[in-house]
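Lecture 7, part 2: worked example. A protein chain together with glutamine.
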Amino acid sequence: MIIGQLLADSGLPLLEARMLLERVLEKPRAWLIAHADEAAGAAAAEAFASMVERRRRGEPIAYILGEREFYGREFQVAPSVLIPRPETELLVELALARIPVNESVRVLDLGTGSGAIAVTLAKERPQARLTAVDVDYAALSVARANAKRHRVNVRFFCGDWFGALSGESFDLIVANPPYVASADPHLAAGDVRFEPQRALVGGADGLECIRVIVAQARAHLNPGAWLLFEHGYDQAAACRALLEAQAYGDIQTWPDLAGIARVSGGRVAPAEGGADLE
Ligand code: GLN
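Predicted complex, written out as structure tokens:
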């Protein structure tokens, strides 16, 4: 079977078909394009057909390949974890702006899932000391695999938000918590259907987890430390109100690249005359 024909006959968008065939043939995209009129072997054609079939049934490309790129690195993903989204790179950028390059600050990632956020922060700020928690063991094993793959040292705990962290405090806490409302029709569409509900759904109004995090984080933040978390497109005002009710300072919301209010945060008061983490 000719490569170009295989791609065209798959019935998938060309980009997706290429991503699958690249994996089967273990060749980069440029090779596929340059060799479009060559034949692929029968075994390769068969392996490709079975991936195409999975994709046609709706399975996300990231789960079929077992990988997704985030902040310029490849991360292992599995159906136990949310597929990293490009908009979450905003949370990473905001966190990096608050982690000094040469200081060994303590950073916590709540609900780490694939570990994409924690591992990225550890790679970008080798001096930072990363802790990551998730309530799901299967997710944690994916996160651990990603820390190993990228050769970073992250402390992992299994627990419900701060459940495994009593007495610990941090210089920065980040989270991409579940924030979709349980009746949101978006849950029944596209890739999201295949993702863990537990990583997506934040109760009836989507804010259940954010409420808990905003309330509990205070006791785990050092003076001057920020809490930053991702939320839904229509939740910014509600999130800022939650932060205000818990007396955070410097409360802000930031838009993602699509202009959607995507991350909010605030911080506890800096110590009198103490160092001020900006
Ligand atoms: N942004 C994701 C979505 O809309 C939700 C991610 C999350 O709940 N943290 O599918």
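The chain has a mean pLDDT of 96. The pocket of glutamine is lined by residues 82, 85, 176-180, 192, 200, 230 (CB under 6 Å). Keep this in mind for problem set question 3.
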